[in-house]
Task: inverse folding
């Protein structure tokens, strides 16, 4: 059984919140219905029982006030250690939103432009080729019709051969390049630039991390410092995200949640990846903007508060308000299809999905809600209309070849809205 207890923000006080690495000015606002939050707690306790996920941390804030912050289940596979509220999680693709903010800071600084060819700074991308038939072993190539821009990287439309029906041969070529074996971001960019594109830039949305890793290299070339250093100095330090990074200091590693997958006997097992065996170490040899960060619920809340407040947090400005607006609106060209990568009623901004029609979704949320998820069952949403932030953090990697635990994010979001709307 998880911790599942609830304390009101007033009883937590500043000391308790600061102890979790967070400073929060509490504001007066409508309190959520206690029975609604109890229903949410009951659901999360059931989802993290002996037959469910190992554990979870949920955090809900509205109108600048934390209204619910709880831990459920256990931190470890043996289920002997209760999950702490400040547990550290591998947030995987939720890193992409952080990397996006880093790149857009350079746009705000006037050092990058959204529609400028990245080849100006990464000359290896000057003469890109597009797959025009043949096979992975004998491809036919033609010059790309247009240059790759930062906008293409941000919207996953640069044309990289990252899977999808009809792109099997180009994907084989990409897989042979072993991009994840790159020694650093410079090596990643060099390997990527030598591969044929699947489509011309700007023609297809296909969500993947390749373009974001290239964007990380773009940031470090333009900024004149390693990508990891830039993210630390310009994003994490100013926001006070003291438990977030591409690795975890040894003294904090006892707070890292075990990462599970489904075993052949239908029971959870420790995932076979290196990050499960060596928790806290860098997840790639390079600082991965596509999925390399560890973080906590209170740390990521601070990041979300900055976006909800138009690029500012506690008197510090990280992004222009208009830049944040561009992140949180549909930035895909009219008519560009998204396929199965986004649910109905969603489009893509910069760094996350945007709700454009709530009636077509499988969960509640307002028009303009923005958010994303991570591969190991981590989720966040920012709902500007309701001044709402909701986080659900777990550590489970679904398996493709066997029965999985049911996804609970849609039900979680529905229960959050039910509790707050009563």
Result:
């Amino acid at each position: 059984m998880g911790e599942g207890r609830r304390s009101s923000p007033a009883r937590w006080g500043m000391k308790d919140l600061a102890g979790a690495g967070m400073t929060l000015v509490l504001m007066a606002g409508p309190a959520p219905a206690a029975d609604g939050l109890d229903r949410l707690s009951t659901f999360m306790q059931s989802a993290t029982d002996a037959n469910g996920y190992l554990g979870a941390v949920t955090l809900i804030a509205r109108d600048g006030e934390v209204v619910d912050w709880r831990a459920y289940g256990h931190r470890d596979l043996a289920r002997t250690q209760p999950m702490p509220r400040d547990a550290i999680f591998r947030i995987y693709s939720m890193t992409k939103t952080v990397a996006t903010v880093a790149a857009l800071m350079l746009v705000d600084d006037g050092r990058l432009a959204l529609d400028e060819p990245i080849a100006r700074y990464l000359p290896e991308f000057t003469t890109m080729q597009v797959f025009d038939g043949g096979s992975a072993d004998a491809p036919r190539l033609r010059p790309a019709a247009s240059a790759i821009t930062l906008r293409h990287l941000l919207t996953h439309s640069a044309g990289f051969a990252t899977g999808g029906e009809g792109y099997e041969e180009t994907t084989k070529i990409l897989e042979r390049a072993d991009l994840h074996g790159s020694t650093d971001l410079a090596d990643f960019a060099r390997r990527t630039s030598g591969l044929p594109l699947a489509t011309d830039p700007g023609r297809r949305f296909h969500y993947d991390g390749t373009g974001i890793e290239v964007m990380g290299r773009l940031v470090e070339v333009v900024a004149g410092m390693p990508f990891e250093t830039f993210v630390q100095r310009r994003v994490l330090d100013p926001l006070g995200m003291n438990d977030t990074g591409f690795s975890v200091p040894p003294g904090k590693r006892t707070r890292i949640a075990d990462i599970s997958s489904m075993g052949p006997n239908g029971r959870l097992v420790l995932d076979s990846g290196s990050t499960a065996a060596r928790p806290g170490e860098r997840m790639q040899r390079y600082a991965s903007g596509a999925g390399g960060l560890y973080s906590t619920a209170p740390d990521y809340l601070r990041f979300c508060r900055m976006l909800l407040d138009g690029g500012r947090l506690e008197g510090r400005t990280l992004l222009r308000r208009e830049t944040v607006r561009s992140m949180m609106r549909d930035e895909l060209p009219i008519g560009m299809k998204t396929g199965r990568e986004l649910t109905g009623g969603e489009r893509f901004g910069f760094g996350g999905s945007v709700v454009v029609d709530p009636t077509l979704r499988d969960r509640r949320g307002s028009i303009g809600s923005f958010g994303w998820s991570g591969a190991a069952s981590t989720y966040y949403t920012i709902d500007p209309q309701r001044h709402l932030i909701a986080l659900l953090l777990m550590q489970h990697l679904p398996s493709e070849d066997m029965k999985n635990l049911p996804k609970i994010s849609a039900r979680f979001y529905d229960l959050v809205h039910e509790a707050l709307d009563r």
Q: What stands out?
A: The chain has two domains: 9-98+227-421, 111-223.
